[in-house]
């Protein structure tokens, strides 16, 4: 059994004269949460559409769950779940009826409905029509639907957009639990803090090219400045000083302050994932 659940080899896609994705290469391991980050028009949605078999690559190839996304498209659909940003649910039907209809499409036993409703904490609201649900509750119904057939790989497009902080936190916990159970998850998000907390690795895509691919921790260490803020007591007042950790002269000054008993607190200044993205991709996520 292969541990690589998503593999892209020189994957590219053009639309007329526009090259939306330019020969990207990456892989995602079993059970990994992989963040795919990029500004609007960078190529992330086109990449996901290729990986889920919705459009064919212009060049290169990809495998998901061991299936070629072009030659084995039909088999692929049985092993992946997809949740896009725009809801496509039946508003007049209850959550249960929506999921029962999806069971019929997937040829899944209806008994599976209660299991996924319990997983997304909606079993007590299952009989209510979708039109009465909040955005967060509808998002959870879509995730439940994507999990009905027990996919090996789950694709999530902006899963936390429009959710209140409590609902977004609960959703992150669900995603983390699915990963712990062995499911591979590729998600796009504009929320850098969410990607930092949730993803094992992240890839930055800009103008159709991958410009970074590593753990959030490594990216922050590689591209952030090694500085610390030192709080001193001087003449009865509190003063903050910035120290560059790689500057011997500034290190010596810090040691002198400590010897004199002036240092009250020291805090390292780690770059945020957004800082790194701006530095590498040249623009902020909107």
Can you put this structure into words, describing what you see?
With 286 residues, the chain is α/β, with parallel strands linked by helices. The protein has 2 domains: 4-221, Rossmann fold (3-Layer(aba) Sandwich), CATH 3.40.50.300; 225-269. It has helices spanning 44-51, 73-77, 95-106, 112-119, 135-147, 165-180, 192-198, 216-223, 248-259, 273-281; strands at 4-15, 18-29, 33-37, 59-64, 67-68, 80-83, 153-157, 184-188, 201-206, 209-214, 227-234, 237-244, 263-269. Strands 6-7-8-3-9-10 form a 6-stranded mixed β-sheet, sandwiched between helices. A hairpin with a 2-residue loop joins strand 9 (201-206) and strand 10 (209-214). Helix 3 (95-106) packs across helix 4 (112-119), helix 4 packs across helix 5 (135-147) and helix 8 packs across helix 10 (273-281).
**Contiguous uncertain segments of 5+ residues:** none
Structural class by sheet pairing and helices:
alpha/beta
Q: Rounded to an integer, what's the Rg over CA atoms?
A: 23 Å
CATH class of the largest domain: Alpha Beta
Domain ABC transporter: 6-232
Organism: Thermosporothrix hazakensis
InterPro entries: AAA+_ATPase (IPR003593), ABC_transporter-like_ATP-bd (IPR003439), ABC_transporter_ATP-binding (IPR050763), P-loop_NTPase (IPR027417)
Keywords: ATP-binding, Cell membrane, Membrane, Nucleotide-binding, Translocase, Transport
Q: Which secondary structure elements does this structure contain, and how are they paired or packed?
A:
Blueprint: E1 4-15, E2 18-29, E3 33-37, H1 44-51, E4 59-64, E5 67-68, H2 73-77, E6 80-83, H3 95-106, H4 112-119, H5 135-147, E7 153-157, H6 165-180, E8 184-188, H7 192-198, E9 201-206, E10 209-214, H8 216-223, E11 227-234, E12 237-244, H9 248-259, E13 263-269, H10 273-281
Parallel strand pairs: 3-8, 3-9, 6-7, 7-8
Antiparallel strand pairs: 1-2, 1-4, 4-5, 9-10, 11-12, 11-13
Helix pairs in contact: 3-4, 4-5, 8-10
Subcellular location: Cell membrane
Pfam families: ABC_tran
Protein name: ABC-2 type transport system ATP-binding protein
